[in-house]
Specification:
- The chain is of the alpha/beta class.
- Helix content is about 25%, strand content about 20%.
- It is built from eleven helices and 16 strands.
- The strands form three sheets. Strands 7-6-5-4-3-2-1-8 form an eight-stranded parallel β-sheet. A six-stranded antiparallel β-sheet has the order 9-10-11-16-13-14. The chain has a two-stranded antiparallel ribbon with strand order 12-15.
- Helix 3 packs parallel to helix 4, helix 8 packs parallel to helix 9 and helix 9 packs parallel to helix 11.
- The relative contact order is 0.13.
Length: about 425
């Protein structure tokens, strides 16, 4: 920048610099290479932070301005659920402080109902597991300031062979609303071969007809690329098959979900499935990477462990307010993998824009040995002359006040370090 002279006010100078910065970021982003996970038959994504594919939500419920947060019973309890577990989980979300951080949905997954409908064709809660009924449970959860979620299926049966809601959408939605349900996870088993684009809208319409505000979470497993059509139907849509508690499953799911980044935004989110943090199948570093990347991808943060009996390490990970803030940032742009290099591309840089012209940046080492990973400004959409402060979201401290051109860090094997880059508005004079 040339030396500034004359009688311009400092406010005008700062405004001019901010404008130049925004334009350079935008121009740099437009020339990013085609993302490696895009298939040949699909339209290439040339902008790493592109959101132009995002559809206009038609659910009309005003929910999901940011990704949903809460807890789901399946990953830890599977079918071994009952009203005592659900109530104690609600209590634990309050006592641990997780609810104050945004974990407000208490979601019951499959196996809550009897194996057949009653004589009037209505769903019935399992009399042994939920003897007090779902309305009583919803009232209890609501009394804690939390919200209750339930599960059904866009098929003849649920995945555990309880009655599904296909052809019963209006009756079941009305029943859920009468119970005070706030969230519906809608699965894909026993779908009779009917296209999902035909099976999922009727439940949207049925929910809307109840007049109750219910979060609508489609669980179509990504088989028919729901990111292409589900934004006009639900608040989130599964882009992948079920996660399991392993490094291999978690990383595979990340790569699948990544390519759909342009289709997510406020009102509707890509869902790579629930969190496995705390269930024992991965290391501390792997779980921290899992949580970091889910947050960056604007994925739903649905805890899948037993929150009544968390370890200190598990709580440390899922309660990181700075990482949660990335997930819940109002700008609502899904972060994505912008560069992979090294052996089999295992040195990875993930990034996504945040409000106030900031960038969330993750350096992820998917190799088996410690490595130094470098993010150059051109790979994350920054013009090379921009200076940034760097805050480490796991150390909770600023580690640089004036980084330019690139940033490097040593990253342990299978670990992920996460940062926020904030442009500094200092004036650089060139003589």
């Amino acid at each position: 920048m040339a030396k500034i002279t004359g009688n311009f006010s400092m406010a005008c100078i700062h405004a001019a610099i901010l404008y130049v910065y925004v334009m350079t970021v935008a121009n740099a982003a437009r020339v990013m290479p085609v993302h490696p996970y895009m298939q040949a038959q699909e339209k290439p994504i040339s902008n790493i932070f592109d959101t132009s594919k995002y559809g206009i939500l038609q659910v009309g419920n005003g929910l999901a301005n940011t990704p949903q947060m809460g807890w789901n019973s399946w990953n830890y309890f599977a079918c071994d659920i009952n009203e005592k577990v659900i109530k104690e989980t609600a209590d634990a979300l309050i006592s641990t402080g997780l609810a104050k951080l945004g974990y407000i949905y208490v979601n019951i997954d499959d196996c809550w109902s009897e194996t057949s409908r009653d004589s009037e064709g209505q769903l019935i809660p399992d009399s042994k597991s939920f003897p007090s009924g779902i309305k009583d449970l919803a009232d209890y959860v609501h009394s804690k300031g939390l919200k209750l979620g339930i599960y059904s299926d866009a098929g003849a049966f649920t995945c555990q062979e309880r009655p599904g809601s296909l052809k019963h959408e209006y009756d079941d939605a009305a029943l859920f609303a009468s119970w005070g349900v706030d969230y519906l996870k809608y699965d894909n088993c026993f779908n009779l071969g009917i296209e999902p684009e035909k099976r999922y809208p009727p439940m949207r319409d049925a929910i809307n007809a109840t007049g109750r505000t219910i979060f609508y979470s489609l669980c179509e497993w990504g088989e028919n690329d729901p990111a292409l059509w589900a934004g006009k139907i639900g608040n989130s849509w599964r882009t992948t098959n079920d996660i399991n508690d392993s490094w291999a499953s978690m990383t595979e799911i990340v790569d699948i979900n990544d390519k759909w980044a342009p289709y997510a935004g406020p009102g509707g989110w890509n869902d790579p499935d629930m969190l496995e943090v705390g269930n024992g199948g991965m290391t501390y570093q792997e779980y921290r990477a899992h949580f970091s990347i889910w947050a960056l991808m604007k994925a739903p943060l649905l805890v899948g462990c037993d929150v009544r009996n968390m370890t200190a390490e598990t709580f440390e990970i899922i309660s990181n307010e700075e990482v949660i803030a990335v997930n819940q940032d109002a700008l609502g742009v899904q972060g994505r993998k912008v560069l992979a290099y090294g052996p089999e591309g295992c040195y990875q840089i993930w990034a996504g824009p945040l409000s106030r012209h900031r960038l969330a940046v993750a350096l992820w080492n998917r190799c088996s040995k410690i490595a130094t990973i470098t993010a150059k400004w051109d790979s994350i959409g920054l013009e090379s002359s921009i200076s940034v402060s760097v805050r480490d979201l796991w150390k909770h401290e600023f580690i640089s006040s004036n980084s330019m051109s690139s940033f490097s860090a040593r990253v342990d094997a299978h670990a992920c370090e996460m940062y926020i880059f904030t442009p500094t508005m200092a004036i650089h004079s060139v003589t």
